[in-house]
Known about the structure:
The chain is mostly helical. Helix content is 59%, strand content 11%. It has 6 helices and 2 strands. It has helices spanning 8-23, 28-39, 41-47, 57-103, 135-151, 161-181; strands spanning 105-115, 121-131. The chain has a two-stranded antiparallel ribbon with strand order 1-2. It is elongated and about 115 Å long. Mean pLDDT is 80; it is low at 185-203.
Amino acid sequence: MRGPRRKKHERERDLARISELYLQGHTHEQIARIIGEEFYQDKAVDFGVTPENFLTRRTIGNDIKTIEERFRQAVIGDIATLKGQELAKLGLIEREAWEGWKRSIGQAVTTTTREGGKNGQETTVRTEDLAGDPRFPQVILQAIEKRCKLMGLDAPLKLSIDEIDAAIEGLIGAARGLAEMAPGGEAPVDGASPGEGQEPGKG
């Protein structure tokens, strides 16, 4: 006779309850007993087992793994949603800053009218060159920096030991090549100064 098995809707119901019990700190054995007593009194009798033994600790462990994976996927989804929202906000801030910067450069024309002149009024037009408000580029740069940080683009470069060794060997090889190209032929050996380690009458 096949052992106790749950239907799909029963397992989903169990997962919701197990999640609560798991977060409350109950052990696998305690969870199995509580779930059995709450949901499987009748089924346990049909299968000739006690309610607390209807679900094994292994079954509870597998259910908890499913719950943890769902937790992870939910968190990943939430983080992706929040990132998208924050990136949209930063994009809006950057666009507004660019528009403000454009308005702060060019020329400002000021017209002043006062009593006097041939027609009873005198109009003065003054033109001023605008160099731009430096606060707007600062806002733009801050938005770019925050976007890079949010997307992980500013993460430090990580190299493995093998990659570091390969880079060092490359530098050593390049240094040897430069030494061989220098006047006088081969490079000094073991850090010896030119002339050392040579036979008398040579070099």
